[in-house]
Backbone:
């Protein structure tokens, strides 16, 4: 049986290849659900903005259904939403994702998961993709989320986007050091 | 209804993010341990049909401009497989690279080498029913970087593959056999020693097209599933 091909960094020079038009805008005219904007900054261990980072996001639609054949839930899929985002950070380390608030989705052993996005972080100096999650601070279901509860309590807030206005959330990603974002082995 | 989880990532397969010889890792690698979590519907699903329309010349980097790019034309072919050796069908493969002189068509590349107006260095394709992909391109040049004194990247091609879930996503680099710069490259050498060979393509006479282009073969193996399906409650 073949062993997996090793990962390598995306490097600093991916911008002419990977970002695509509208990669950070997941909503289309017919997309169902509450439109939201998530914005934030990626920072390194010195607190400096990380300019050459690529964020890939994956989420369920507003009804909690993933656009994927292995999601066999009964509710219909929103055909106006595919759930995938890809945004490079700007020169000042910022990113913006325009999407809809995902519905809750099933979790391990029949428990529900609070609404969340899964994020893959790629960039210069990142040899193997970092995986994290983005939750929302106005969701009561966070308190019963089976994944959040596996994270040390004092670090959970690094996974929770802060509501700053109606439909707007702020979420920073800290690659290293104080307030380092929780990254997962999954 | 059955679904098998993906195999956990074993040590020794991928480069550790804490690889200080590659200087850019020093302020970007997490210092806290990763938190192990179970695979949920959020991870065993993933972007599988997000590629939009693939153009007929997207896989041929030598025909994307008015003229032919300078450099040594090559055919790059391989299969995308899972850990059981099965084909990963109809998955998006993206490729990017510098030109034959070692310069990227990127505003951040400050190397004093010429740009080629006939070469952008980006391509994409879908694998076929056997998991096969094929690109036509030119062999990229080596180029200097500022990691350490007299640092040079060996010729390499960046590859991005999705696979069937969020967990199969892979970004890697493919190198050329016999390159003397490999021994000095901290990015290549960040990979555990026993796994480095899997990043080196093989020269393939069978793929080489007479009086036209050399052929290189590079198979890509994505994370596979556990053998035993888990019955969902």
Residues:
């Amino acid at each position: 049986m073949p062993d997996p091909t090793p990962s390598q960094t995306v490097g600093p020079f991916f911008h002419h290849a990977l970002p695509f038009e509208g990669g950070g805008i997941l909503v289309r005219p017919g997309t169902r659900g509450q439109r939201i904007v998530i914005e934030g900054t990626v920072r390194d261990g010195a607190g400096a903005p990380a300019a050459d980072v690529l964020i890939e996001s994956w989420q369920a639609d507003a009804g909690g259904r993933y656009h994927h054949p292995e999601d066999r839930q009964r509710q219909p899929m929103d055909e106006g939403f595919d759930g995938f985002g890809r945004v490079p950070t700007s020169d000042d380390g910022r990113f913006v994702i325009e999407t809809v608030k995902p519905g809750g989705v099933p979790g391990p052993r029949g428990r529900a998961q609070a609404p969340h996005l899964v994020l893959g972080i790629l960039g210069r100096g990142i040899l193997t993709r970092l995986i994290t999650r983005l939750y929302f601070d106005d969701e009561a279901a966070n308190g019963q989320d089976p994944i959040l509860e596996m994270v040390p309590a004092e670090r959970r807030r690094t996974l929770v986007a802060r509501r700053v206005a109606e439909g707007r959330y702020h979420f920073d990603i800290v690659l290293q050091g104080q307030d380092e974002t929780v990254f997962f082995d999954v | 209804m059955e679904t098998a989880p993906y195999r956990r990532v074993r040590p020794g397969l991928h480069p550790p993010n804490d690889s200080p010889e590659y200087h850019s890792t020093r302020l970007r690698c997490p210092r806290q341990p990763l938190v192990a979590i179970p695979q949920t519907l959020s991870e065993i699903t993933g972007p599988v049909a997000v590629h939009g329309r693939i153009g007929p010349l997207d896989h041929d980097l030598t025909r994307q401009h008015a003229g032919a790019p300078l450099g040594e034309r090559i055919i790059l072919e391989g299969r995308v497989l899972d850990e059981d050796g099965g084909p990963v069908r109809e998955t998006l493969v993206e490729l990017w690279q510098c030109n034959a002189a070692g310069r990227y068509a990127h505003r951040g590349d400050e190397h004093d080498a010429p740009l080629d107006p006939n070469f952008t260095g980006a391509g994409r394709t879908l694998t076929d029913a056997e998991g096969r992909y094929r690109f036509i391109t030119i062999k990229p040049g080596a180029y200097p970087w500022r990691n350490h004194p007299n640092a040079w990247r060996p010729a390499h091609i960046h590859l991005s593959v999705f696979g069937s879930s969020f967990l199969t996503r892979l970004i890697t680099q493919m190198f050329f056999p016999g390159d003397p710069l490999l021994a000095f490259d901290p990015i290549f050498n960040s990979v555990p020693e026993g796994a480095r060979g899997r990043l080196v393509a093989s020269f393939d006479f069978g793929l080489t097209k007479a009086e036209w282009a050399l052929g290189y073969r590079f198979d890509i193996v994505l994370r596979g599933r556990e053998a035993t399906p888990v019955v969902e409650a």
The first strand of chain A starts at residue 35 and ends at 43. Chain A is about 0% helix and 35% strand. The mean pLDDT of chain A is 97. Chain A touches chain B through 74 residues (CB under 8 Å).
